[in-house]
Amino acid sequence: MADWDIRKLQILRTLREEGTVTATAEALRMTPSAVSQQLTNLARQLGVPLLEAHGRRVRLTAAARLVLRHTEAVFEQLRRAESELTAYVQGEAGEVRVGAFSTAVPALVVPAVRSLRTSAPGVTVRVREAEAAEAYDLLAAGDVDLALSLAAHAPTARDTRFHLVPLLADPLDVALPRDHPLASSPALRLADLAAEPWIFGGSGPWSDITRAACEAAGFSPAQGHAASGWTAILAMVEAGMGVALVPRMAAVPRTGVAMRHLSEDSPVRHVLAATRRGTTEAPAVARVLQALREASNG
């Protein structure tokens, strides 16, 4: 197979456009002898004559015109590649795979994607919903490029595989049945609910968060029911089966549920973005991370 040298083909193409070896050399900032030598080498590599004498000048042979006709598509593809590469370097193009826990998807990821459609339409975001505890496994395996998780799941400082970026402190509000006596209390505290049955997961980080928040307020919560999904938890609260701590970004309005901000001892959960070390500054990843920061502040 012939050796198709792109640089030499560009010289041949320029000769067609400029008309003479001298003009070609000036356009390419080469010497005329260097132009002639490169074209002689290309003709040898392709196995066909590319130039023929025409008076005191040279002109392209039929073989040269055939070569250029077929290489135009190559030049066009290279221009597209160069354009896309420039966009990639500037963070305006590329694909970023994002793993996010369920409540982070509508609260952070979706607003970020909407923003990117305007600011960087060439950036494609692929979303994968995953449990917060799964985020770092997916990241380490290379299945996602950026993961949203909770500080409660973050690896220790000794784990140098990841770069962690704090996004927001998500306040925890109390969900009460709408007809609960304290639903309209002007200054509700966690301690006011010490005698209530609480609804939270039987184990895991959310159980730990609920227990820690209540214990910080001076009591140990009595678990009335165990559930991990916010739809199930809020449905039980609405039915008067107990009360629950609910992250503000996870709350979905329900007719029979009163969501109350706590006047003091307000607990929060910390949401983090994580990338693999060395990839945080990748242009498209950095652009998505910036969009997530803006969504967390909005």
Description:
The structure is a single chain. The chain contains nine helices and eleven strands. The protein is α/β, with parallel strands linked by helices and 298 residues long. Strands 3, 4, 5, 6, 9, 10 and 11 form a seven-stranded mixed β-sheet that branches. It has a two-stranded antiparallel sheet with strand order 1-2. It is rod-shaped and about 105 Å long. 32% of the residues are buried.
Q: What does this entry show, briefly?
A:
This protein is α/β, with parallel strands linked by helices and 298 residues long.
Envelope shape: rod-shaped
Instruction: Give a quick account of the main beta sheet: strands, pairing sense, barrel closure.
Output: 7 strands, mixed
Fraction of residues in helix: 40-55%
Distance linking N and C termini: 59 Å
Secondary structure elements and pairings:
Elements: H1 6-18, H2 21-28, H3 32-46, E1 51-54, E2 57-60, H4 62-89, E3 93-100, H5 104-119, E4 122-129, H6 135-141, E5 146-150, E6 162-177, E7 197-199, H7 205-216, E8 222-225, H8 230-238, E9 244-247, E10 257-260, E11 268-276, H9 283-297
Parallel strand pairs: 3-4, 3-5, 7-8
Antiparallel strand pairs: 1-2, 5-11, 6-9, 6-10, 6-11
Task: Summarize this structure as a short list of keywords or feature phrases.
alpha/beta; two-stranded antiparallel ribbon; 298 residues; rod-shaped; single chain; 11 strands
